[in-house]
Write a structure and sequence with these properties.
alpha+beta; four-stranded antiparallel sheet; about 40% strand; 2 domains; four-stranded mixed sheet
C-alpha cells in the first residue's frame, strides 16, 4: 500500500525560507521617547541629623524602581504615560517602636532632546508610606509626556536616505547613511528622552556620586 507523501519536510522548508527572507539589519525607529533614570539621581538617602553623613545616622534610603512607559503614537500627538514606584528602607531604632510614617520625596521629570537639550522640566513629589512596625515603605507616581508627531519625525529626504534599498553594485553600497553629519543631526533633533529622578540638593548628590 502506498501511503500519502509526508508534506511536513516541505512545509518546514517553506517556513525556513520565509524566515530567511527577513532583513536582520532593518531597524524600525519608534517615535516614542525613551524613558530612563540618569546616573546618581535614582537613590535618595536622608540622615538624622541632616548634616551628618555617618552610616549610623541614616534615617532611610529610597530608590526609584519599576519604571515603565505606555506610548500611544497617534497621527498628531505621541503621548507617553510613565509609571514608577519608590521603595524605601528606614533604620530601626535600638529597642524602639516603629510607628506608621509618611514622607514626601521630591522628584523631577525632564524632557530632553537629542541627548543634551533640556526642553522641559517638572518638579513633583511622591509619598512613601511606612506601615506600623515595618522598616519598608513604598509609594508610586506617574507622569505624562506629549510630543507633536512632526517634531519626532525626521525630514522626508533623511527618511528616504535611510530607507533606500541599495544594491551591491551601487557606489555607496557600503556607506552607512548615519555617517553623514546631516543625517545624524536630523535623527538627534527628532530623538527625545523622558528622564526622571530624585531632585537632590548639592550635598545629597555629592553623597551619591561618592558612594
Amino acid at each position: 500500500m502506498i501511503g500519502r507523501p509526508d508534506v511536513r519536510p516541505a512545509l518546514l522548508l517553506l517556513l525556513a525560507l520565509a524566515a530567511c527572507q527577513q532583513n536582520p539589519l532593518k531597524v524600525t525607529r519608534s517615535p516614542c521617547p525613551a524613558v530612563a533614570i540618569p546616573n546618581h539621581v535614582g537613590q535618595l538617602t536622608r540622615f538624622n541629623p541632616p548634616e551628618s553623613r555617618d552610616a549610623d545616622a541614616i534615617d532611610f534610603v529610597a530608590q526609584i524602581v519599576n519604571v515603565s512607559a505606555t506610548c500611544t503614537p497617534a497621527e498628531a500627538i505621541v503621548a507617553s504615560e510613565i509609571r514608577y514606584e519608590v521603595t524605601a528602607v528606614r533604620r530601626a531604632p535600638a529597642g524602639g517602636a516603629l510607628p506608621a510614617r509618611e514622607v514626601d520625596l521630591p522628584l523631577f521629570v525632564s524632557l530632553v532632546q537629542g541627548g543634551n537639550v533640556l526642553v522641559a522640566k517638572q518638579l513633583t513629589a511622591v509619598r512613601v508610606s511606612f506601615p506600623e512596625g515595618s522598616i519598608r515603605g513604598r509609594g508610586s507616581g506617574g507622569a505624562r509626556s506629549e510630543l507633536a508627531r512632526a517634531v519626532v519625525t525626521p525630514p522626508p529626504d533623511v527618511v528616504a536616505r535611510l530607507t533606500r534599498e541599495r544594491k551591491p553594485t551601487d557606489p555607496d553600497a557600503l556607506i552607512d547613511p548615519m555617517s553623514d553629519p546631516v543625517v545624524r543631526a536630523a535623527i538627534r533633533a527628532t530623538s527625545f528622552e523622558v528622564l526622571l529622578g530624585f531632585q537632590l540638593d548639592d550635598a545629597s548628590l555629592a553623597y551619591n556620586v561618592a558612594r
